[in-house]
Design goal:
44% of the residues are buried. The longest helix has 19 residues, at 316-334. This protein is α/β, with parallel strands linked by helices. The protein has helices spanning 13-24, 38-41, 69-73, 90-99, 114-126, 141-151, 182-185, 187-191, 194-204, 292-306, 316-334; strands spanning 4-9, 28-34, 64-66, 80-83, 103-106, 131-133, 158-168, 209-215, 226-232, 238-247, 254-261, 264-269, 272-277, 282-283, 339-341. It is globular, with a radius of gyration of 20 Å.
Length: 342
């Protein structure tokens, strides 16, 4: 395919971020957008709040604007459907797009419950088109470096691993404040902490059990705003992750990890990205200065162009397995921090 034609459904923080990334890609054309907000369909994204600074109007020259995603999916000019709407609406759009033969990129989490996860998994297996979920941490350069060098044996066996994803409050920063409704978003546990749960499964495999503690700070409908999880493996590894979006809005965002291995400790912390070898050497690995969003979308588009499966970083069965772990974390909290077997 000489030119990949993209349609973006949902112009919130992630939708506008994806829009900007696609616009910079050679051989890619954004041909359609869809949003329920008439202002956004005109390119006015001044209401969007996120880590993108001051919003400037989108250039929608030559772009068809729809008021719902299903009309965009029916557009014969669209090759890739990029779904960036609230989680509760993912499943219907994903299934419709796959049925229409479109290549589908869906933001995480790819659905809201186990039944929906099974339906998507089955549809992806039956489809001939490509499917990807926005689990961008799998593509983030520092995390990719950790994964690759751990898998090739450079660091030896993992002894312990700690992951953190701590955000200022996003209360009021989103359309209909849907993130603060646990029924719609799954809270910080499913919408943000899931990145680290997924990466742990990607790095170390699916744990045999999980134990989580958590609490609601700002959300309604059992939305967990702060979660700490312990992932149990057959060996004696200590593996835990913490996620929170309940701090004051002035609090800096933190995305960090420390993985202690037999030969080295790998850290992404305030001092930057470092490898501390047990022989005393300290290394600053050279990684691409970009985001996981850029790598993820670049890779997906490249696979669509070449007509190959986008399964180097993920496949639907991996995604399903890590989603089941996230659901078990919620179950553990609901049952008073019970240990949930997987």
């Amino acid at each position: 395919m000489d030119k990949i034609r993209v349609g973006v459904i949902g112009l919130g923080f992630m939708g506008t971020t994806h829009f900007g990334i696609y616009k910079e890609m050679p051989g890619v054309e954004i041909v359609a957008i869809a949003d329920v907000d008439e202002r956004k369909r005109r390119g006015d994204i001044s209401s969007v709040i996120g880590n993108i600074g001051n919003s400037v109007p989108l250039d929608l020259t030559g772009v068809t604007a729809y008021d719902n995603g299903f009309d965009l999916i029916a557009d014969p000019n669209v090759d890739i459907v990029d779904i960036c709407v609230p989680t509760e609406s993912h499943t219907a759009l994903v299934l419709a797009a796959l049925k229409a033969g479109k290549h589908v990129h869906s933001e995480k989490p790819f659905c809201r419950n186990v039944e929906e996860a099974k339906a998507i998994r089955d549809a992806v297996h039956a489809a001939k088109s490509n499917f990807c979920v926005g689990l961008c941490v799998r593509y983030w350069p520092e995390y990719t470096y950790l994964y690759d060098d751990l898998k090739n044996g450079s660091f030896g066996k993992v002894l312990s691993a700690t992951f953190r994803r701590l955000s200022p409050s996003i209360d009021g920063n989103n359309w209909e404040n849907w993130f603060m409704d646990g029924k719609r978003s799954g809270g910080a546990l499913l919408d943000m902490h899931t990145h680290d749960t997924d990466f742990i499964c990607h790095l170390l495999g699916k744990p045999k059990a999980v134990t989580s503690i958590g609490r609601t700070i700002l959300s309604k409908n059992n939305g967990i705003d702060h979660v700490i999880s312990f992932y149990h493996y057959d060996n004696d590894m200590v593996v835990e992750a913490e996620g929170c979006w309940g701090a004051p809005k002035t609090t800096p965002f933190e995305m960090t990890f420390q993985v202690i291995c037999e030969k080295a400790t790998i850290r992404l912390m305030a001092e930057g990205f470092k490898v501390y070898w047990t022989d005393g050497r300290v290394e600053t690995p050279a990684v691409e200065a970009t985001t996981g969003w850029h790598v993820e979308l670049r890779y997906f588009v490249d696979c669509v162009k070449k007509g190959i499966k986008a399964d180097k970083y993920q496949n639907v069965d991996d995604i399903y397995d890590s989603f089941i772990v996230s659901m078990a974390e919620q179950e553990s909290i609901d049952k008073g921090s019970a240990r949930i077997s997987l």
